[in-house]
Structures are given as structure tokens and as C-alpha cells.
Design a protein that fits this description.
Elements (H helix, E strand, L loop, with lengths): L1 E6 L7 H4 L8 E2 L2 E2 H11 L4 E6 L3 H9 L1 H4 L1 E6 L6 E7 L5 E6 L6 H7 L1 H4 L4 E5 L2 E3 L3 H11 L3 E6 L6 E5 L5 E6 L8 E2 L3 E3 L17 H8 L3 E6 L3 E3 L3 H12 L10
Length: 259
């Protein structure tokens, strides 16, 4: 089964880094967050990826083009007057990666529509290229197959850092406590499973996947949520990038399900 990853946006909210590269190529622990996402899927046996690229898409293509060299022990032998390359050991992943230029200003639904020829008439997984999670995608897929609907999304209750105030009718604060996940509404964390029927709801490059398409599918009772209580974190800001980097450096990265 193919895994589609949206990786074409401008990443304007983290412009300190995205001015040089696409947001999914911003590194955590020396590897792009895109790599971390792919490693998670690969851990559960999903190794075929379709990357929806756009902004600075050449950076993604070049990284994968050089990936074999970066992850192998190689001797470059020029003694014969020619350039001979001897590969001693390679540590590459068993991945098949298709990087598709889905346009610079294309919306999320349009990007998914553009990769239809690479997916065909098959169910596929889809997620965003800027968030890591430790959801068991094998269980997610089993849940999707069990209910038989068009689409499944992973829903999480994000922890919030703001304080919760208990205010009475006189505007007096009666109690204060830190906000917890119980105070939050579930949000779409990505990590979706989509049937090929989803392409019928995608019109053109201006289609925003999270609006009309998902709203229509939900109105038809064809959208299910896989409630997940584990770790999920997006990387929308420099602060979140630094937080993920610190977690990875300390060896406390919950999304690192692989060995």
C-alpha cells in the first residue's frame, strides 16, 4: 500500500528555516522530519511513498538522489585514471519513493488529485509532512478496513499549555489549573487512510482537502475517526522545531518507534 505525504507548502510560519528548504526537509537529529515520518511507516511495513512536492521541490529530489551515497561506506578509486566507486556497506531503507511536483501554489486537495496516476484505483495512506506521531498505522489500517467507509483520519487530543480559569458571574476567578487534553476538542492529526473514491471529491488545484472534500464525505457518513491517545506533534514554529530536536537529542522521542 502506498503512503502519500503532503510536502509542498511554503512553511511561512517557520520562515527562519523554510526560506532555504521545504518545511518537511527541516532536520531533527540530522535527518529531515520527512525521513522521521517515513521511518514510522516503514516500521510497520509500509515502504512505498508518493511525495507531493511543490515549494523548492528540487531540494527533496536531490536529497533522495544522494541518499544512497550519504548512507553507504564508499571508496572512490582514481588510481587507474578513471573514477571507480566501490560500495562496501550500505544502510539504506527498503523504500520506493516517487517525488511528484504538484505545483507551487496548489492547495492540499489539488496536490492529492495530481498524484492520482501514481496511486491508481487503490486504497492509500496519507499524512502531512510536518508532524510526527507514534500511532500504530497497522491498527489504523485494520480499523479502516473494518468499518468499510471511504476515509479514516487519526484524531488526537493535543495537550495545551494555557491555564484554565473557573470564572463566576461576577468575573471573579474561583479556580485556576493547567489545561489538559480533556479540555481540548479532537483535531485532525493526518495519518489518514483513503479509499480511491476520495478522488471523486477533488476538483482542481484550488481544492482545499480539509474543507469541501472532507466536509462532503463527513456529511455522507463516510468519514471515520481513529481516536489516538499517544504522541503527536506538528512543527509549525521554531519553538516546536527546537522542542522536537531536544526530545530527539535526549533519547526521549516518542515517535521513534524504530530501532
Amino acid at each position: 500500500m502506498k503512503v502519500v505525504i503532503l510536502a509542498g507548502g511554503f512553511g511561512t510560519r517557520i520562515s527562519e528555516e523554510s526560506q532555504f528548504k521545504p518545511k518537511p526537509m527541516i532536520e531533527i537529529g540530522g535527518k529531515p522530519i520527512l525521513w522521521h515520518i517515513m521511518k514510522g511507516y516503514s516500521h510497520y511495513g509500509f515502504n512505498e511513498f508518493v511525495i507531493c512536492a511543490g515549494y523548492k521541490q528540487h531540494v527533496i529530489k536531490k536529497w533522495f538522489a544522494d541518499y544512497f551515497l550519504y548512507n553507504s561506506d564508499i571508496t572512490f578509486d582514481f588510481t587507474s585514471g578513471y573514477s571507480d566507486m566501490i560500495v562496501h556497506n550500505q544502510h539504506c531503507e527498503p523504500w520506493k519513493v516517487t517525488v511528484v511536483d504538484t505545483g507551487l501554489n496548489t492547495m492540499t486537495g489539488g496536490r492529492i488529485k495530481r498524484i492520482q496516476p501514481y496511486v491508481g484505483n487503490e486504497t492509500f495512506m496519507m499524512t502531512y509532512g510536518d508532524a510526527v506521531c507514534n500511532v500504530d498505522v497497522g491498527r489504523l489500517l485494520a480499523f479502516h478496513r473494518l468499518h468499510g467507509k471511504i476515509a479514516t483520519l487519526t484524531a488526537v487530543l493535543p495537550e495545551q499549555s494555557k491555564g484554565v480559569l473557573d470564572i463566576d458571574e461576577n468575573n471573579s476567578v474561583r479556580a485556576f489549573r493547567e489545561k489538559s487534553a480533556k479540555d481540548s476538542a479532537p483535531i485532525n492529526a493526518g495519518y489518514m487512510v483513503l479509499g480511491p473514491q476520495i478522488f471523486d471529491f477533488l476538483k482542481d488545484d484550488t481544492t482545499i482537502f480539509e474543507r469541501e472534500p472532507l466536509e462532503q464525505v463527513a456529511a455522507m457518513s463516510e468519514l471515520k475517526s481513529f481516536i489516538f491517545h499517544g504522541f503527536w506533534q506538528c512543527m509549525d514554529s521554531k519553538r516546536e522545531m527546537d522542542m522536537l530536536e531536544k526530545m530527539y537529542a535526549s533519547g526521549q522521542a516518542p515517535w521513534k518507534v524504530w530501532q
